[in-house]
Amino acid sequence: MDADNSSADALSTIWKHSYKGGEWRSCVNKSSGGLPESNGYIYVEANGGLNQQRILICNAVAVAGFLNATLLIPNFHFHSIWRDPSKFGDIYDEDYFISTLENDVRVVDKIPLYLMEWFDHNMTNVYNFRVKAWSSIHYYEEVVLRRLLEEKVIRISPFANRLSFDAPPAVQQLRCLANYEALRFSNPILTLGEALVSRMKERSVNHGGKYVSVHLRFEEDMVAFSCCVCDGGEQEEKNMIAARERGWKGKFTKPGRTICPGAIRLNGKCPLTPLEVPWTTRVRLLPHRFKIKQPNLMHELLIIVHEK
Predict the structure, then answer these.
(1) CA–CA dist 128, 158 (Å, integer)
(2) Which residues contact 189 (CB under 8 A, 6 or more apart)?
Protein backbone atom coordinates (compact mmCIF):
# COMPACT_ATOMS: atom_id res chain seq x y z
CA MET A 1 0.00 0.00 0.00
CA ASP A 2 1.38 3.41 -0.91
CA ALA A 3 1.52 6.41 1.35
CA ASP A 4 1.35 8.80 -1.64
CA ASN A 5 -1.60 9.61 -3.89
CA SER A 6 -1.06 6.74 -6.33
CA SER A 7 -3.70 4.59 -4.62
CA ALA A 8 -6.20 7.46 -4.78
CA ASP A 9 -5.47 7.86 -8.51
CA ALA A 10 -6.00 4.16 -9.04
CA LEU A 11 -9.36 4.28 -7.27
CA SER A 12 -10.48 7.24 -9.35
CA THR A 13 -9.95 5.28 -12.59
CA ILE A 14 -11.10 1.83 -11.46
CA TRP A 15 -14.55 2.18 -13.09
CA LYS A 16 -12.99 2.99 -16.48
CA HIS A 17 -11.65 -0.52 -17.09
CA SER A 18 -13.93 -2.41 -19.46
CA TYR A 19 -15.71 -5.56 -18.37
CA LYS A 20 -17.35 -7.93 -20.87
CA GLY A 21 -17.48 -5.21 -23.47
CA GLY A 22 -19.00 -2.60 -21.18
CA GLU A 23 -17.88 -0.75 -18.09
CA TRP A 24 -17.79 -1.51 -14.41
CA ARG A 25 -20.69 0.10 -12.58
CA SER A 26 -21.28 0.69 -8.91
CA CYS A 27 -23.66 -1.92 -7.49
CA VAL A 28 -25.09 0.39 -4.84
CA ASN A 29 -28.45 1.94 -5.68
CA LYS A 30 -30.01 3.57 -2.61
CA SER A 31 -33.73 4.22 -2.51
CA SER A 32 -35.23 7.58 -1.68
CA GLY A 33 -38.88 6.79 -1.03
CA GLY A 34 -40.64 5.30 1.97
CA LEU A 35 -41.22 1.63 2.73
CA PRO A 36 -44.57 -0.23 2.75
CA GLU A 37 -45.89 -1.77 5.94
CA SER A 38 -43.56 -4.45 7.26
CA ASN A 39 -44.48 -8.14 6.93
CA GLY A 40 -42.87 -8.96 10.26
CA TYR A 41 -39.56 -9.26 12.08
CA ILE A 42 -36.57 -11.46 11.23
CA TYR A 43 -33.98 -12.37 13.85
CA VAL A 44 -30.73 -14.06 12.76
CA GLU A 45 -27.80 -15.37 14.77
CA ALA A 46 -24.34 -14.58 13.42
CA ASN A 47 -21.96 -17.48 13.85
CA GLY A 48 -18.39 -17.83 12.60
CA GLY A 49 -15.55 -15.32 12.45
CA LEU A 50 -15.59 -11.66 11.48
CA ASN A 51 -15.63 -12.29 7.71
CA GLN A 52 -18.39 -14.89 7.96
CA GLN A 53 -20.40 -12.56 10.19
CA ARG A 54 -20.05 -9.70 7.72
CA ILE A 55 -21.29 -11.85 4.83
CA LEU A 56 -24.11 -13.06 7.05
CA ILE A 57 -25.17 -9.50 7.89
CA CYS A 58 -25.25 -8.57 4.19
CA ASN A 59 -27.35 -11.66 3.44
CA ALA A 60 -29.72 -10.85 6.30
CA VAL A 61 -30.23 -7.34 4.92
CA ALA A 62 -30.90 -8.79 1.47
CA VAL A 63 -33.43 -11.35 2.74
CA ALA A 64 -35.23 -8.82 4.95
CA GLY A 65 -35.43 -6.29 2.14
CA PHE A 66 -36.65 -8.84 -0.41
CA LEU A 67 -39.37 -10.06 1.97
CA ASN A 68 -40.28 -6.52 3.05
CA ALA A 69 -39.47 -7.54 6.62
CA THR A 70 -37.92 -5.69 9.54
CA LEU A 71 -34.46 -6.93 10.50
CA LEU A 72 -33.49 -7.13 14.15
CA ILE A 73 -29.83 -6.24 14.71
CA PRO A 74 -28.05 -9.63 14.31
CA ASN A 75 -26.92 -11.37 17.47
CA PHE A 76 -23.25 -12.41 17.54
CA HIS A 77 -22.51 -15.84 18.93
CA PHE A 78 -20.07 -16.17 21.80
CA HIS A 79 -17.39 -18.28 20.10
CA SER A 80 -16.10 -21.25 22.09
CA ILE A 81 -12.54 -20.74 20.82
CA TRP A 82 -12.04 -16.99 20.63
CA ARG A 83 -14.29 -16.31 23.62
CA ASP A 84 -15.11 -12.88 22.24
CA PRO A 85 -18.23 -11.38 23.91
CA SER A 86 -18.49 -8.54 21.35
CA LYS A 87 -21.93 -7.50 20.18
CA PHE A 88 -22.88 -5.85 16.89
CA GLY A 89 -22.41 -2.35 18.31
CA ASP A 90 -18.92 -3.18 19.56
CA ILE A 91 -17.74 -3.98 16.03
CA TYR A 92 -19.89 -1.77 13.83
CA ASP A 93 -21.51 1.66 14.10
CA GLU A 94 -25.05 0.52 14.84
CA ASP A 95 -26.79 3.88 14.45
CA TYR A 96 -25.06 4.49 11.12
CA PHE A 97 -26.07 1.02 9.92
CA ILE A 98 -29.73 1.64 10.73
CA SER A 99 -29.86 5.14 9.24
CA THR A 100 -28.05 4.17 6.02
CA LEU A 101 -30.58 1.43 5.31
CA GLU A 102 -33.69 3.32 6.45
CA ASN A 103 -35.11 3.79 2.92
CA ASP A 104 -34.36 0.23 1.81
CA VAL A 105 -34.68 -2.07 4.82
CA ARG A 106 -36.11 -1.44 8.26
CA VAL A 107 -33.59 -2.32 10.97
CA VAL A 108 -34.35 -2.14 14.71
CA ASP A 109 -32.46 -2.98 17.89
CA LYS A 110 -35.42 -4.61 19.63
CA ILE A 111 -38.79 -6.16 18.87
CA PRO A 112 -41.90 -4.38 20.23
CA LEU A 113 -42.94 -5.60 23.67
CA TYR A 114 -46.48 -6.47 22.60
CA LEU A 115 -45.08 -8.97 20.11
CA MET A 116 -42.55 -10.43 22.54
CA GLU A 117 -45.40 -11.06 24.99
CA TRP A 118 -46.64 -13.74 22.57
CA PHE A 119 -43.35 -15.57 23.18
CA ASP A 120 -43.03 -14.90 26.94
CA HIS A 121 -40.26 -12.40 26.14
CA ASN A 122 -37.95 -15.27 25.20
CA MET A 123 -36.43 -15.48 21.71
CA THR A 124 -35.95 -19.24 22.05
CA ASN A 125 -39.75 -19.54 21.93
CA VAL A 126 -39.81 -17.90 18.50
CA TYR A 127 -40.19 -20.33 15.60
CA ASN A 128 -36.72 -21.17 14.24
CA PHE A 129 -36.21 -21.95 10.56
CA ARG A 130 -33.48 -24.50 9.83
CA VAL A 131 -32.63 -23.22 6.37
CA LYS A 132 -30.38 -25.36 4.17
CA ALA A 133 -27.03 -23.92 3.17
CA TRP A 134 -26.98 -21.87 -0.05
CA SER A 135 -30.78 -21.71 -0.32
CA SER A 136 -32.12 -19.55 -3.13
CA ILE A 137 -33.91 -16.29 -2.46
CA HIS A 138 -37.02 -17.94 -3.93
CA TYR A 139 -37.03 -20.43 -1.05
CA TYR A 140 -37.35 -17.50 1.34
CA GLU A 141 -40.12 -16.03 -0.82
CA GLU A 142 -42.09 -19.28 -1.15
CA VAL A 143 -41.51 -20.88 2.28
CA VAL A 144 -40.17 -18.42 4.85
CA LEU A 145 -42.44 -15.51 3.94
CA ARG A 146 -45.57 -17.58 4.52
CA ARG A 147 -44.51 -18.40 8.08
CA LEU A 148 -43.37 -14.83 8.68
CA LEU A 149 -46.83 -13.51 7.81
CA GLU A 150 -48.36 -15.99 10.26
CA GLU A 151 -45.95 -15.58 13.17
CA LYS A 152 -44.91 -11.93 12.68
CA VAL A 153 -41.54 -12.86 14.23
CA ILE A 154 -39.25 -15.65 13.02
CA ARG A 155 -35.75 -16.75 13.90
CA ILE A 156 -33.14 -18.21 11.52
CA SER A 157 -30.27 -19.96 13.27
CA PRO A 158 -27.67 -20.69 12.14
CA PHE A 159 -27.66 -18.22 9.26
CA ALA A 160 -24.09 -18.42 7.89
CA ASN A 161 -24.08 -19.44 4.20
CA ARG A 162 -27.87 -19.69 4.15
CA LEU A 163 -28.33 -17.59 1.00
CA SER A 164 -27.06 -18.50 -2.46
CA PHE A 165 -24.55 -16.17 -4.10
CA ASP A 166 -26.62 -16.40 -7.26
CA ALA A 167 -29.48 -13.96 -6.78
CA PRO A 168 -31.51 -11.36 -8.74
CA PRO A 169 -30.03 -7.85 -9.15
CA ALA A 170 -32.35 -6.39 -6.50
CA VAL A 171 -30.97 -8.82 -3.91
CA GLN A 172 -27.37 -8.22 -4.94
CA GLN A 173 -27.85 -4.48 -4.66
CA LEU A 174 -29.05 -4.85 -1.07
CA ARG A 175 -25.99 -6.95 -0.30
CA CYS A 176 -23.76 -4.28 -1.79
CA LEU A 177 -25.55 -1.50 0.06
CA ALA A 178 -25.00 -3.27 3.36
CA ASN A 179 -21.38 -4.16 2.69
CA TYR A 180 -20.06 -1.00 1.07
CA GLU A 181 -22.26 1.67 2.61
CA ALA A 182 -24.01 0.61 5.81
CA LEU A 183 -21.33 -1.42 7.59
CA ARG A 184 -18.88 1.01 9.13
CA PHE A 185 -16.60 -0.01 11.99
CA SER A 186 -17.24 1.47 15.41
CA ASN A 187 -15.19 4.50 16.46
CA PRO A 188 -12.75 2.58 18.73
CA ILE A 189 -11.88 0.21 15.87
CA LEU A 190 -11.59 3.03 13.32
CA THR A 191 -9.30 4.97 15.67
CA LEU A 192 -7.09 1.95 16.24
CA GLY A 193 -6.95 1.18 12.51
CA GLU A 194 -5.96 4.75 11.64
CA ALA A 195 -3.22 4.64 14.28
CA LEU A 196 -1.81 1.38 12.90
CA VAL A 197 -1.80 2.64 9.30
CA SER A 198 -0.17 5.92 10.35
CA ARG A 199 2.50 4.02 12.27
CA MET A 200 3.25 1.72 9.32
CA LYS A 201 3.55 4.67 6.94
CA GLU A 202 5.94 6.46 9.28
CA ARG A 203 8.14 3.39 9.69
CA SER A 204 8.21 2.66 5.96
CA VAL A 205 9.23 6.16 4.88
CA ASN A 206 12.65 4.83 3.82
CA HIS A 207 10.93 2.43 1.44
CA GLY A 208 8.76 4.92 -0.40
CA GLY A 209 5.96 4.71 2.14
CA LYS A 210 5.13 1.14 1.10
CA TYR A 211 4.29 -1.63 3.53
CA VAL A 212 2.74 -5.09 3.62
CA SER A 213 -0.04 -6.03 6.02
CA VAL A 214 -0.27 -9.76 6.75
CA HIS A 215 -3.28 -11.48 8.31
CA LEU A 216 -1.85 -14.74 9.67
CA ARG A 217 -5.26 -16.43 10.10
CA PHE A 218 -3.47 -18.96 12.29
CA GLU A 219 -6.22 -19.84 14.76
CA GLU A 220 -7.00 -23.07 16.55
CA ASP A 221 -10.21 -23.92 14.72
CA MET A 222 -8.75 -23.16 11.30
CA VAL A 223 -5.59 -25.19 11.96
CA ALA A 224 -7.67 -28.07 13.34
CA PHE A 225 -9.96 -28.02 10.28
CA SER A 226 -6.97 -28.10 7.92
CA CYS A 227 -5.79 -31.43 9.48
CA CYS A 228 -2.19 -30.26 9.07
CA VAL A 229 0.70 -31.00 11.41
CA CYS A 230 2.57 -27.90 12.55
CA ASP A 231 5.45 -29.57 14.44
CA GLY A 232 3.90 -29.25 17.87
CA GLY A 233 4.44 -32.89 18.65
CA GLU A 234 2.13 -35.35 20.34
CA GLN A 235 0.43 -32.69 22.48
CA GLU A 236 -0.46 -30.65 19.39
CA GLU A 237 -1.99 -33.74 17.79
CA LYS A 238 -4.14 -34.39 20.86
CA ASN A 239 -5.24 -30.74 21.01
CA MET A 240 -6.20 -30.68 17.31
CA ILE A 241 -8.17 -33.92 17.57
CA ALA A 242 -10.07 -32.47 20.54
CA ALA A 243 -10.68 -29.18 18.69
CA ARG A 244 -12.04 -31.00 15.62
CA GLU A 245 -14.40 -33.03 17.76
CA ARG A 246 -15.62 -29.92 19.61
CA GLY A 247 -16.23 -27.97 16.45
CA TRP A 248 -17.40 -30.59 13.97
CA LYS A 249 -18.51 -33.59 16.09
CA GLY A 250 -17.70 -36.73 14.11
CA LYS A 251 -17.03 -35.09 10.73
CA PHE A 252 -13.40 -36.21 10.77
CA THR A 253 -13.90 -39.61 12.41
CA LYS A 254 -16.43 -41.11 10.03
CA PRO A 255 -15.70 -44.69 8.92
CA GLY A 256 -13.42 -44.66 5.90
CA ARG A 257 -12.19 -41.10 6.50
CA THR A 258 -8.39 -40.96 6.23
CA ILE A 259 -6.33 -37.92 7.21
CA CYS A 260 -2.92 -37.58 5.55
CA PRO A 261 -1.20 -34.43 6.90
CA GLY A 262 1.88 -34.94 4.73
CA ALA A 263 -0.14 -35.08 1.53
CA ILE A 264 -2.15 -32.04 2.57
CA ARG A 265 1.06 -30.04 3.08
CA LEU A 266 2.55 -31.16 -0.24
CA ASN A 267 -0.64 -30.01 -1.96
CA GLY A 268 -0.12 -26.53 -0.52
CA LYS A 269 -3.26 -26.62 1.62
CA CYS A 270 -1.65 -26.01 5.00
CA PRO A 271 -1.67 -22.57 6.64
CA LEU A 272 1.69 -20.92 7.20
CA THR A 273 2.67 -20.81 10.85
CA PRO A 274 3.73 -17.51 12.47
CA LEU A 275 7.32 -18.76 12.13
CA GLU A 276 7.02 -19.68 8.45
CA VAL A 277 5.54 -16.32 7.41
CA PRO A 278 8.70 -14.24 8.03
CA TRP A 279 10.80 -16.99 6.41
CA THR A 280 8.80 -16.88 3.20
CA THR A 281 8.84 -13.07 3.31
CA ARG A 282 12.63 -13.13 3.48
CA VAL A 283 12.75 -15.50 0.51
CA ARG A 284 10.88 -12.92 -1.55
CA LEU A 285 13.67 -10.46 -0.77
CA LEU A 286 16.44 -12.79 -2.03
CA PRO A 287 18.30 -11.85 -5.27
CA HIS A 288 16.59 -13.02 -8.46
CA ARG A 289 19.40 -15.49 -9.20
CA PHE A 290 18.04 -17.78 -6.49
CA LYS A 291 15.67 -20.31 -8.04
CA ILE A 292 13.55 -22.52 -5.80
CA LYS A 293 13.10 -25.79 -7.68
CA GLN A 294 10.76 -27.47 -5.22
CA PRO A 295 8.45 -24.82 -3.72
CA ASN A 296 6.27 -27.49 -2.11
CA LEU A 297 9.13 -28.67 0.08
CA MET A 298 9.35 -26.23 2.94
CA HIS A 299 12.56 -27.90 4.12
CA GLU A 300 14.45 -26.88 0.97
CA LEU A 301 13.13 -23.34 1.26
CA LEU A 302 14.26 -23.04 4.87
CA ILE A 303 17.78 -24.22 4.01
CA ILE A 304 18.09 -21.45 1.41
CA VAL A 305 16.92 -18.81 3.90
CA HIS A 306 19.23 -20.11 6.62
CA GLU A 307 22.28 -20.03 4.34
CA LYS A 308 21.41 -16.53 3.13
Answers:
(1) 9
(2) 91
What is the C-alpha to C-alpha distance for residues 222 and 281, in angstroms, rounded to an integer? 22
Other C-beta atoms within 10 Å of 289: how many? 5
Contact 176, 27 (CB under 8 A): yes
Which residues contact residue 207 at a Cβ distance below 8 angstroms, ignoring those fewer than 6 apart? none
What is the pTM for the complete model shown? 0.75
**Alpha-helical segments (H) within the chain:** 6-13, 50-66, 88-91, 94-101, 113-116, 137-139, 145-151, 169-176, 187-203, 220-226, 233-248, 261-266, 276-284, 298-307
Report the alpha-carbon distance of residue 71 to residue 108 in Å, rounded. Answer: 6
Burial category of 211 from C-beta neighbours within 10 Å (exposed 0-12, middle 13-18, buried 19 and up):
middle
Rounded distance between C-alpha atoms, residue 72 and residue 69, angstroms: 10
Q: How far is CA 5 from CA 11, 207, 285, 287, in A?
A: 10, 15, 25, 29
Read off the DSSP letter of residue 135: -
Residue 95, number of CB atoms within 10 A of its CB: 11
116-165 pLDDT, tens per residue?
A: 999 999 999 999 999 999 999 999 999 999 999 999 999 999 898 999 99
